Amino acid sequence: MNDKERNYYNTFVSVRDFGAENTADFPAGSAGANNFASVGAAADEMEQSGAAQTSGASGQATMQKDVALAELREDLRAINRTARALAVDDSAIGEMFRMLSGNNEQNLLAAARTFLTNAAPLKNQFIEYGLPADFLDDLQSDITAFEQAASGKSTATGEKVSATASIGNAVQNGLEGLRRLQAIVPNKYRDNPAKLAAWTSASHVERAAKKKTPTPPTQ
User: Can you give the pLDDT at residue 188?
Assistant: First the structure.
């Protein structure tokens, strides 16, 4: 949640608590009770979505993807290095295992699949030049790990976006309930100054602090 949303959340919680403390004055099914429930539900939704928004799942998924990407790159480097040695006797092999420049992940994944296909009939030659006997299995495993990590990052990012949207909807619903209560509660307590003062305090929305404009350096 940003500062503005957090201020709304704090107000919704205060309003929810005010309603709970004065349940007897707003019977079940009344407009007051319904709108206190609406504001309370908005506070609950913001709390849950805020937790999802900052759960760290997206950061963890990014780390997993970075690790998988690094391992995949290492596989390709080892195969490329060995292919260049084999190319001393057969130049065509070198052309089959060129490393791509740049950091495009999809291009790297495509290259890994190409290496896997091209290396299969040459497996014994690669092994003779020092690669592990299971190097193709390792490559396939690392391709799969990267695909899964990339999918996990996409899912985590989507969940974060969804949580942010849920917070926005909750704010809208909470504010609608609060606006209705701004008439219902004062009308109910028009002859009760203490209750009105408590309501004014509970329903107050703190303004988000404005960002200071940097002072330009003096000449």
Answer: 93
